[in-house]
Amino acid sequence: MKHLIRLTVNGTDYDLLVDPRKTLLNVIRTDLGLMGTKSGCNTGACGACTVIMDGKAVNSCLILAVQANGKKILTIEGLGNGEKLHPLQEAFIRHGAIQCGYCTPGMILSAKALLDKNSNPDGIEIREAIAGNLCRCTGYLSIIEAIKAVSKDRKMGQGSLNGT
Amino acid sequence: MKPFEYIEPHSVEEALLFLNQFGNETKILAGGTILLLQMKSQKITPRYVVNIMNISGLDRIEYNEKEGMTIGSLATIANLEDSFILRDRLSILHQAARELGTQQIKNIATLGGNLCNASPAAEMAPALIALGASAKLVSLSGERVVKLEDFFVGPGKSVLKTGEMLIEVQVPHPPPGSKGIYLKHAFRKKLEMANVGIAVLADFNEKEKFIKDVLIVLGAVASIPKRALEAEALAKGKKMDGELLERVALLASEESSPIDEVWASAEYKREMVKVFVERAFDQILSLDGYRV
Predict the structure, then answer these.
(1) Listing from the earlier edge strand, what are the strands of the sheet with B142-147?
(2) What is the pLDDT of residues A15-48, one digit of tens each?
């Protein structure tokens, strides 16, 4: 039996009729056509499918869409406004923290969830926050630098993280 | 995933009524970080999946001067990690929560799920057993309280009966002045389940500096999380020195019965039990200069 659910994705409400077997990742990509959220290992090990659900970073491949009923979801498409990038996106570009780009949406959302909770994380807190996001290109250092730079800018009153 | 019917009760009673009737064909879904993997690989193919996350009140973390800590089965691991009262009062359990997995997993995985899945490597089990914690199980015919030490039966098996649900974990006060530590061995620290998990809780005679009582719990190196009773007995009543520590650690290692896995052989894990028991005592003893 299919179930009627409501998801609020990037500020827009969607009423969807879904098979309970469908994961949140599946619904985001195929039903909503938001391809920024990537499908990697599908076992919660790589973090490519990371989205923010009710303020927390989660693996969308490990959540059934029916479990997400009534929740607020933020995907990479919800950052920036089409004209202007989010400060984290800017910083990733500036620091060369993107190479193939496959891990980037998940990586940025893990970073955003961290900064929303802790505006001035130290190096270890940053590493722990992105420990669930594999990157096979950058070696991570540029990513950590990019996240640090945003928290620093923010402390100096530049670059609002709420500019979504 | 094989087709299943999805059920969403909103109270414990409603869940129990369903489990009472269809428990044999049902899997309970909490965070789902383990269940979904098992269903995706079709290792299990339940007819019904009962999502209990919408039952309110089961995620409480409460502290009471008299009884100690009560943790609802639906508290997430992130809830535990973020709890100041847990960090201050039960640091051994707080450490286990910190070690459990990635932020993404900790945000949805629950304490109850970690225990009811009954993995020999269940991250929260060694610390809870060391603390003498109990599980409160409810069914339509009433409730019972089981010591976590007696909760696990074998890989994937606990004393939980069909129609029964874990609703809270009760953790008594550790003896005042006791010191506990949880150490985990894993190659990819924040992601993997433990290859070896060691919890040690020691109570000292403050004047004489000898060990009044000690619990040593081994995770991931037997069919269930279990105490190293002989190693505990050897350490009890003695002042700890290097030689004794070596014997205690060796005994604990002999009490483990790990299996070969792709990522670590049984022999390696047995060796790591020794290393981590030594390390755990080292860290506890260095806290207050108890090391002789």
Answers:
(1) B61-64, B68-72, B165-171, B134-139, B142-147
(2) 999 999 999 999 999 999 999 999 999 999 999 9
